[in-house]
Amino acid sequence: MRVREIDGLAALAADYDGILCDVWGVVHNGVASFAAATDALSRFRRARGPVVLVTNAPRPSGPVIEQLRSLGVPDEAYDRIVTSGDVTRRFVAARPGTKVFHLGHPRDLPFYEGLPVELVGEDEAELVSCTGLFDDYTETPEDYREMLGRFVARGLVMVCANPDIVVERGDTLVYCAGALARLYDELGGETVLAGKPHPPIYRTALELTGLPPGARVLAIGDALGTDARGARNAGLDLLFVSGGIHEADFGPPGAPDPERIAMHFRAEGLEAVGYMPHLAWSRSAGGNAKPDVAGEALVTRTGGR
């Protein structure tokens, strides 16, 4: 199977009524937005139909919208947004009075706002809620092996608010909550995940488009394990952005080898209607979506693909 390179979203737009688009790695990199990508989504909205952003961010959509604005993503680039935090909150909300241990950075505490649960320490916990690592700049999942082993021994369920394994922050890959959930599984624990590539977030996203059943919806993303697999599971065509977290696997930056891309898709049993290094309406409209920005993220998080 060969995945063809396309000139831009314009080459596919007429075939689709709506778009479900990944965020981190396609629309921004945690440091700044990609102007060509937001332009492409804005053009699709004007010409064709709704755009719903679908992200594995572990927080509710409100704070994520504010983050997008701070990174320069214009409101006109999308209609609605659904986060892994949104759909995961429903699982926690259905367990009122539960004592919950929050595993993650304090910036993710908005996840619990309005939920009828009590945040407690490790020894009192009845449920583990993971939004990421305490410090994703310096820590790895191995730093949590002993703690997770103690939770497994007590038979606690881990609710993972962000299934991503890693995310690209600027030019660096950092671990996300999904990496801890994977280790929890390896240790024999039970995990609950609702974000990409799992069905709950896609059901919600398709509802938010407002399109009728049978409408043609295109998924856009840069991660094989979440975006590509999630699109396949949801029965959606995929436009693959090769310049995201897998860029180093495909050859020189900005000039991926089609055979390498095809090899990875075959190995994973996945398909795509096309790929481009970075999302843009067309090459003439601006084909390189990577910003020339240095420094730390204005607002950081542990997920959001």
Automatic annotation (TrEMBL):
This is TIGR01459 family HAD-type hydrolase. Pfam families: Hydrolase_6 (PF13344), Hydrolase_like (PF13242). InterPro entries: HAD-like_sf, HAD-SF_hydro_IIA, HAD-SF_hydro_IIA_hyp3, HAD_sf. Gene3D superfamilies: HAD superfamily/HAD-like. GO terms for molecular function: phosphatase activity. Keywords: Hydrolase. One of its GO terms (cellular component) is cytoplasm. NCBIfam families: HAD-SF-IIA, HAD-SF-IIA-hyp4.
